Amino acid sequence: MDLKGKNILVTGGGGFGVGEGICNVLIASGARVVINERNREMADAAGKKHVKAFTVVADIGNPTEVEDMFAFVEKEYGVLDGLVNNAGIGLSKPAHEANQQEFDQLYGVDVRGVWMVSKLFVNQLLKNGLAGNIVNVSSVHAHSTIPGYAIYASAKSAVEGLTRGMAVELGGKNIRVNAIAPGYVHAEQNYELIRSWTENPEQWVEEYIFKEQVIHRKIQAEDCGYAVGFLLSDHSRCITGQTIYIDCGTTIKLLGSV
Ligand SMILES: NC(=O)c1ccc[n+]([C@@H]2O[C@H](COP(=O)([O-])OP(=O)(O)OC[C@H]3O[C@@H](n4cnc5c(N)ncnc54)[C@H](O)[C@@H]3O)[C@@H](O)[C@H]2O)c1
């Protein structure tokens, strides 16, 4: 995959999960990567981890900060060719128990943030008469979910709807819009969270992979990065409006272990 000469913004690229794998692959493929993070501390940590990348601070849930981010990026790093809407937050609470603040916070980042960043990205392409590419990060929850994730699942479904809709609106302007939908992406740091519902997180992960996936291997963040790199590259020039599920077959199963 050759992404040399491409200027790509990755939102929430300073995390230890999906964003890290995406940045690793894009940088290794020769892209000039600009990593967005929500505060200076996280942006600096991302800059130390990815020494070839540039960083920019903005809370993508805050429209003014998103506008300032685009003004800064265009001035400092030039026009962007690619955007990866990776930043996202979760919520583990049944929809009927969640309050309005929790709903607004999640939708403010996972839906409005994705729309707002995409809107400004597209407008800077149109202003400069350039082609470009967006890759959104959805989730298997947009396809099928579990109790406690209805609001997150609905937000990721909105991301897939936005992906198709913007692809239809922008195809004629040589702007493609696609998405990836990861399943459980493994990171050592996840064990801490998993410990909140089981005493043996390692065993829980092994069982999940065996019972819920068709391909019995841990999905690494780089596996998401490879698909993102493909969707940003010219190898996918006839693909738009699609969501690629990176879930080792989780969402194609009907019942039980296979
Ligand atoms: N990890 C998984 O198994 C998994 C599975 C499916 C989908 N996803 C999706 O992948 C994306 C990355 O998640 P992750 O699990 O790697 O989590 P993560 O917490 O490691 O990464 C998310 C990053 O986004 C940043 N962020 C959060 N809110 C932000 C904001 N308002 N502005 C700017 N940056 C912000 C965080 O600081 C963090 O670095 C999310 O969209 C998530 O929904 C993850």
UniProtKB/TrEMBL annotation:
Annotated organism of origin: Ginsengibacter hankyongi
GO MF: oxidoreductase activity
Superkingdom: Bacteria
PROSITE patterns hit by this protein: ADH_SHORT (PS00061)
InterPro entries tied to this protein: NAD(P)-bd_dom_sf (IPR036291), Sc_DH/Rdtase_CS (IPR020904), SDR_fam (IPR002347)
Keywords carried by this UniProt record: Oxidoreductase
Family: Belongs to the short-chain dehydrogenases/reductases (SDR) family.
Pfam families with a match to the protein in the record: adh_short_C2 (PF13561)
Identification of the protein by name: SDR family oxidoreductase
